[in-house]
């Protein structure tokens, strides 16, 4: 995508940031309580509940790459609007679902839609923001996402939505608000937001030709991604980090429920600590790292992650767990925006969506981490589980150090201003 930002796209960039918070708020009053809904409303057993919820990760991975690649071919904004419509339809479908098949189908379509939106939204944000400010704006996006997840479950439980069927309509309403807002912003910024988007099919081009060109574009994107050794190593490193961060709550839940009398209360305090730490410290940490390269941020974040997991391993009371979570959360704050910044730095401009989409393959770590942790917990106990899973982060740090040194320019500082655009076109601050 060609960056041709004018005075209007900053409004679109802000809309993407605010929308991240709206979406996470809508998701957090529904998705965390999906298991409760399936058991209470449909009477499903734990095995089937686990299958329905766990299977969504595979739909997410495939949709992330395909959605990102399609955005390089058909345009970002078109894919974003289609994805939002897909989520709304999925929530409404879940509200009316009465059987296992319907729930499985709509949970799958929701995973497909949300995972398509993620990489496309990041690619568009990267299109709109100059290189020297992208890490900061990825941090803004990550912060608003966490704000939604910090507030949503509490609000949902307080107003009686936890596990209730009506929560799906609330989720659909939240996404509907964002769809209308984003659509309005796109109309206001239509001339500039569409700049750099692929041209529409020529009037004489038939649907068969369009379908063929899309398939060819997807195949080309897959070939480019699969042959980029830098990207493949970064996906592996991201997978290892995701194995630690992706479901740390499940590791803590298993350890605390089996070894502490007040384990449930401790888990609540620890998870709240994570959300508060991310929301409060995100901007301060991002400003500190703004002039530093993203590889350094991930290396420091990875080491803090290892220290946090070691803290969990040897924690004996609630304050030990809270302190360990603060350290762990600092690592999380450093890692996530920097990961997107690194992918942005190596991605060809016309394949940015494909590269962000390919990064979703790292979500396999969401399965690997809890599975490995469960095996270690059953065989050797909680201390070994946390240290063993934490070692994934250490391996990831080694990969980032090796790739950062070998890839020219990857570990260097980002220029404050882009030479390709005049100063007045830059998006510097949200406010």
Question: Can you describe this structure?
Answer:
- There is one protein chain.
- This protein has helices at residues 9-28, 34-40, 46-74, 76-96, 100-128, 134-158, 166-188, 190-193, 207-226, 229-245, 248-259, 263-289, 294-314, 318-346, 352-358, 365-380, 382-406.
- The chain is mainly α and 431 residues long.
- Helix 1 runs parallel beside helix 6 (134-158), helix 3 (46-74) runs antiparallel to helix 15 (352-358) and helix 6 (134-158) runs antiparallel to helix 12.
- Residues 1-9, 199-204 and 414-431 have low confidence and may be disordered.
The tally of beta strands, per DSSP, is 0
The helicity comes to over 70%
| Radius of gyration, whole Å | 21 Å
Topology as a string of helices (H) and strands (E): HHHHHHHHHHHHHHHHH
Global geometry: globular
The N- to C-terminal Cα distance equals: 26 Å
Count of individual helical segments:
17
What's the story with the biggest beta sheet? none
On the 0 to 100 scale, the average pLDDT is: 79
Tell me the fraction of residues in β-strands, as a range.
Answer: under 5%
Secondary structure class reads mainly alpha
- Any low-confidence stretches, pLDDT <50, length ≥5? 1-9, 199-204, 414-431
Characteristic terms for this protein:
431 residues, mainly alpha, disordered N terminus
Q: Which helices and strands, and how do they pair?
A:
Elements: H1 9-28, H2 34-40, H3 46-74, H4 76-96, H5 100-128, H6 134-158, H7 166-188, H8 190-193, H9 207-226, H10 229-245, H11 248-259, H12 263-289, H13 294-314, H14 318-346, H15 352-358, H16 365-380, H17 382-406
């Amino acid at each position: 995508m060609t960056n041709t930002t004018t005075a209007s796209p900053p409004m679109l960039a802000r809309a993407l940031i605010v929308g991240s918070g709206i979406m996470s708020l809508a998701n957090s009053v529904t998705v965390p309580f999906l298991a409760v809904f399936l058991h209470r409303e449909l009477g499903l057993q734990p095995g089937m509940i686990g299958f329905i919820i766990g299977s969504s990760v595979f739909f997410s991975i495939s949709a992330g790459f395909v959605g990102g690649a399609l955005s390089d071919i058909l345009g970002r904004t078109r894919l974003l609007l289609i994805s939002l419509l897909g989520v709304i339809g999925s929530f409404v479908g879940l509200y009316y679902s009465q059987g296992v098949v319907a729930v499985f189908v709509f949970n799958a379509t929701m995973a497909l839609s949300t995972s398509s939106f993620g990489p496309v939204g990041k690619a568009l944000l990267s299109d709109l923001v100059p290189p020297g400010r992208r890490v900061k704006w990825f941090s803004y996006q990550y912060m608003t996402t966490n704000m939604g997840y910090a507030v949503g479950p509490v609000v949902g439980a307080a107003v009686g939505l936890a596990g209730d069927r009506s929560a799906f309509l609330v989720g659909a309403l939240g996404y509907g608000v964002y769809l209308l807002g984003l659509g309005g912003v796109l109309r206001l910024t239509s001339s500039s937001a569409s700049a750099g988007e692929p041209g529409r099919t020529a009037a004489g081009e038939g649907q068969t030709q369009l379908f063929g060109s899309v398939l060819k574009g997807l195949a080309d994107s897959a070939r480019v991604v699969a042959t980029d050794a830098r990207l493949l190593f970064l996906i592996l490193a991201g997978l290892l980090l995701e194995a630690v961060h992706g479901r740390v709550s499940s590791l803590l839940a298993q350890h605390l429920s089996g070894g502490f009398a007040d384990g449930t209360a401790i888990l609540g305090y620890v998870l709240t600590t994570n959300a508060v730490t991310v929301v409060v410290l995100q901007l301060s940490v991002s400003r500190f790292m703004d002039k530093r390269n993203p590889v350094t941020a991930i290396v420091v974040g990875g080491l803090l992650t290892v220290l946090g997991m070691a803290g969990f391993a040897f924690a004996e009371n609630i304050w030990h767990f809270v302190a360990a979570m603060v350290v762990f959360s600092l690592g999380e704050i450093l890692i996530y925006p920097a990961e997107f910044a690194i992918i942005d730095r190596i991605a060809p401009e016309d394949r940015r969506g494909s590269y962000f989409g390919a990064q979703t393959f790292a979500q396999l770590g969401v399965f690997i981490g809890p599975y490995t942790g469960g095996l270690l917990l059953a065989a050797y106990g909680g201390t070994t589980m946390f240290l063993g899973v934490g070692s994934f982060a250490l391996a990831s740090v080694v990969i980032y150090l090796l790739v950062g040194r070998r890839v020219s320019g990857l570990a260097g500082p980002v220029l404050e201003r882009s030479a390709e655009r005049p100063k007045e076109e830059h998006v510097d601050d949200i406010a």
